[in-house]
């Protein structure tokens, strides 16, 4: 499969599963209404599992601009390929969120809480404290990227960028899924743990476009936090990895 198609499709399915579990647990009249954070954390983790299974063999399964940027800084991915990877990820995230809205449209229109509706698309802080909200995304993404880099490991260094497809797929589908579950359970309650600029921006764009009776605003004033935070966290992780290896 073409690597860009793999990134698009893998990210699309990841976001469909992730926003889908949020919709299933938050919207009125679903069978899972009121389900807890454990279900949401596992839903996102298993969404990553599926995305990695799809994209890993063809693109390395970045599925996340922060992963792409972190790997490029660490010398494990070509900078020239990064813009198209990121575009494919963003379009995939938008498509996945649109499919969630399409599936749950009746339930969206029966839900009167704009915050609950927005929360099925994109992230927001439990307590608004911008510096700490950014720090939450930085640290969550740092954990994601540093673990990926260490598991992908120094044994790949001698092979060169083109010899192996680096990404979440380098870790393996199950380990990276458990990693995402762990991040969600430990730190996700602060900002919803975007740890992925495309995961937040793509669905936020869809939230602003689709017709829902009581959806409220898309809170574009906060949208930069789950973009900048993960990029800083990924860059920091890559620099730490380069410094110690």
Structure explained in plain terms:
The protein is mainly alpha-helical and 245 residues long. Helix content is 69%, strand content 0%. It is built from ten helices and no strands. It has helices at residues 3-26, 37-59, 65-73, 82-109, 114-119, 130-152, 168-171, 173-191, 197-209, 225-244. It starts with a helix and ends with a helix.
Show the helix and strand layout:
Blueprint: H1 3-26, H2 37-59, H3 65-73, H4 82-109, H5 114-119, H6 130-152, H7 168-171, H8 173-191, H9 197-209, H10 225-244
Helix pairs in contact: 1-2, 1-4, 2-8, 3-4, 3-10, 4-9, 6-8, 6-10, 9-10
Q: What would the keywords be for this entry?
A:
single chain, 245 residues, mainly alpha, Glycerol uptake facilitator protein, 10 helices
Short description:
With 245 residues, the chain is an all-alpha fold. The chain is 69% helix and 0% strand.
